[in-house]
Amino acid sequence: MARACFPPSSTSMTPSTDRNDALMARARQVIPGGVNSPVRAFRAVGGTPRFVQRAQGAYLWDANGQRYIDYIGSWGPMILGHGHPAVLEAVRKAIDEGLSYGAPTEREIELAEEILSLTPSMEMLRLVSSGTEAGMTAIRLARGATGRNKIVKFEGCYHGHADALLVKAGSGLATFGNPTSAGVPPEVVQHTLVLEYNHIEQLREAFALHGPDIAGVIIEPIAGNMNFVRATVEFTRLCRELCTRHGALLIYDEVMTGCRVALGSAQSLYAQAIPGFEPDLTVMGKVIGGGMPLAAFGGKRAVMEQLAPLGPVYQAGTLSGNPVATACGLATLREIRKPGFFDALAAKTRRLMDGLRAAARAASVPFSADCEGGMFGFFLLPELPQNYQQVMQSDSARFNTLFHGLLARGIYIAPALYEAGFVSAAHTDGDIDATIAAAAEVFRLLPATAR
Ligand code: KE4
Q1: Are strands 67-70 and 411-412 parallel, antiparallel or unpaired?
Q2: Has residue 13 got a pLDDT over 80?
Q3: What angle do CA 197, 256, 86 make, to 5 degrees?
Q4: What's the per-residue H, E or C state across 72-112?
Q5: How far apart, in whole angstroms, are the C-alpha atoms of residue 151 and residue 167?
Q6: CA geometry: angle at 129 spanning 125 and 133, to 5°?
Q7: Active-site residue 253, yes or no?
Q8: Whose CA is nearest to atom 18 of ligand 1?
Q9: What angle (nearest 5°) sits at the alpha carbon of residue 390, between those of residues 388 and 392?
């Protein structure tokens, strides 16, 4: 998705970043933009990315030895915090047994069984190495299983960087999307229809126009790539009804929300509101790999058996089901399924949001926040947004000031206003209170005119 860049803010409050600056200059010589994934480059907020030296528990240390309370958690996977002893032990043991075999292992079955037991909508799954790969293959599978080409996605949702999904809305419902990246031919996105998130009438109209050709609808049920925007229950019900009526597959992208907003992922929350609710395919990543390159997609047996070697839909991977990554994921899932884990995590996240809300109110800063399990989002807007257009009404200059103010106080949040945040089991009440106190200071520094 194309996103605007903003000028760097004053760095007068930040501690010395000499070594980060030096490393960035060196990185730029050998890695485009100095980073291996664009959002790490701080382009939206300006300034120099922190080069991480090490991490432990809730903390990261940068190249200057400066400590930060980490609310990015590797963009979601680190639900236990960094360096959890049970996870490290499982990984060390796995390493001793070999790094990769390119052959099946018992541990892959165990991890598949573990994920399936938490996610009843899936009867089978396949393990891959990234969320992008999982989302891309779920689309191919939906097309292969239905014999149709059209895919519906929603503006502001991100499903990885597969060509067919790097697309923004076309000029109307009768036209399909436009590429958001150079290198994606218009023909490749001609079958992707981009609709507004939570827009009931548009979804109805899209199915009325294209129903028999739609292979699937892919959605982030809680859109972490719009910071934190929930699909309404009404919208979710309609997605389900229309897919069922028209024979399309409902694909839940739970790469971010999977085992993060609840043990049973976001779909378990919607199933509480809509009895019997299930997506047809689920895409997962991040937490299920515990910090190693691992993701998955799964669904009902009849659909999953369309995959090679059983069926005609091809998919493969040299490192798929890697023995070290599966050990890491399995150890992580075994921790998070312990009784009370999610209640405690959700309580911490709520404590953070409640504290930030109160601090913003005290400084008369327009603010709204939402959270679920260990995932949160906040906006410098008086009301929670419902779609991408509303998210983008956030004042980027004020977010920029907030971001750098927090960073200077040792608090590391995502360097973009459209990215969710994450609390881990390692965050203490003390960390959270320190974060709220830092935010209270920064809220008071926001330009008076903007409050
Ligand atoms: P990866 O290919 O990055 O493993 O996963 C792609 C993906 C798919 N679906 C959702 C809902 C996602 O959030 C992601 C990846 N998330 C981004 C953060 N917005 C990862 C960070 C990055 O791109 O560097």
Answers
A1: parallel
A2: no
A3: 165
A4: CHHHCCCCCCECCHHHHHHHHHHHHCCCCCCCCCHHHHHHH
A5: 11
A6: 75
A7: yes
A8: 75
A9: 70
Half-sphere exposure of 122 (CA within 13 A, CB side): 30
Q: Whose CA is nearest to atom 15 of ligand 1?
A: 160
Pairing of strands 192-195, 150-154: parallel
Average pLDDT, the chain: 94
Which protein residue has the closest C-alpha to ligand 1 atom 7? 160
List ligand 1's pocket residues with C-beta within 6 A: 37, 39, 75, 130-132, 135, 158-160, 220, 224-225, 253, 255-256, 285, 295, 419
Displacement of CA 417 from its chain's centroid (Å): 14
Closest by CA position to 75, among listed 97, 52, 108: 52
For residue 24, give every residue at least 6 positions away whose Cβ sits within 8 Å of its Cβ, in sequence order, or none.
34, 48, 49, 51
Q: Give me the phi and psi of 251, to 5 degrees please.
A: -110, 115
Q: Using CA atoms, how far apart are residues 93 and 395, in angstroms rounded to an integer?
A: 48
Given a contact cutoff of 8 angstroms between Cβ atoms, the answer to whether 325 and 289 are in contact is: yes
* CB count in 10 Å sphere of residue 181: 12
| CA dist 103 → 117, 184, 288, 323, 338 (Å) | 24, 34, 20, 10, 31
What is the structure's pLDDT at 169?
78
The H helix count followed by the E strand count for the chain is 13, 18
Mean pLDDT of all residues in 413-418: 95
Cα 129 to ligand 1 centre (Å): 12
385 alpha carbon to ligand 1 midpoint, in Å? 21
Q: Which two tokens stand for residue 4?
A: 């605007």
Q: How large a percentage of the chain has pLDDT more than 90?
A: 92
For 36-41, what is the mean pLDDT? Answer: 96
Contact 6, 45 (CB under 8 A): yes
pLDDT score of 449 more than 80: no
Active site residue 197: no
Over residues 321-367, the pLDDT tens digits come to: 999 999 999 999 999 999 999 999 999 999 999 999 999 999 999 99
Q: What is the pTM of this model?
A: 0.95
CA 79 to chain centre: 13
Which two structure tokens, joined as six digits, stand for 83? 């360096």
Ligand 1: residue of 75, 257, 417 to mutate (most ligand atoms within 8 A of CB) is 75
| Angle (nearest 5°) at CA 378 between 375 and 381 | 155
Average pLDDT of span 97-101? 98
Q: How far is the CA of 160 from the centre of ligand 1 (A)?
A: 6
**Both ends of the chain: CA-CA distance in Å?**
29
